[in-house]
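batch job 7 of whatever, protein = ABC-type polar-amino-acid transporter
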Amino acid sequence: MVKIRGLRKSFGPLEVLKGIDLDVHQGEHVVLFGPSGSGKSTVLRSINLLEPPDHGSVCVDGVEYGPGVAGAASVKRGRPMALRRKVGMVFQQFNLFPHLTALDNVALPLRSVKGMRSEPAMQRAAEYLRRVGLLERAGHYPGQLSGGQQQRVAIARALSLDPKVMLFDEPTSALDPELVGEVLRVMHELADEGMTMVVVTHELGFAREIGDLNVFMDQGVVVEQGSSELFDNPRNARTQDFIRAVR
Ligand code: ADP
Ligand code: MG
């Protein structure tokens, strides 16, 4: 579903990704973890082309993008919009429109991105709010919802667009501790339903439950990856230090 090859990305003089390879198969749940600044968000943002690759390629469900591994003159093989429609993204900050109700926050992109008419968009939005357990809050504005509820609205909004893969960038990091569980529960259900997911998280307990492949990044490279076994027996000293520090 996602194939990344030789991905490099710099911001000015700072090389943030130094050659990343990553495969995410259909229905697979991949966890990215590692210290702040290691390039995790940049990997996610490369998958939906918020950051175009300097070098290497990103392929999502057969749509490829980027200059290629050889670094030849930039040939953009896929249209970014075609790729972006296949990818749903949930951010640390929920990015809801404060002046729209929960229902309208979900319905708006159904109209603007999917081109749905108002009435079916509302119906579909309600269906997805029900899925995240928030149908009864449909008429509430973001300011009237808890952080956990807002994040569930953001998840419903991304899901309603019917993505092939869902990206989560530290979806619980901005939440009070008592609200983390309800968001992880929704994500867990989604994983159980077979959604293809790439999740950046420091919740290593959750990672252990859903992560088919767990990828430790540091300083722009994949240091080590593996099954949940990785959390018990990390081989690399940097992975060991990080896991010990997060626990
Ligand atoms: P992580 O998500 O692992 O914390 P990021 O991918 O956000 O790491 O960032 C990796 C590095 O790239 C950091 O040093 C960050 O400051 C830098 N960076 C990220 N985005 C930009 C940008 N748009 N402009 C300049 N520097 C950036
Ligand atoms: Mg980040």
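notes: The longest strand covers residues 14-24.
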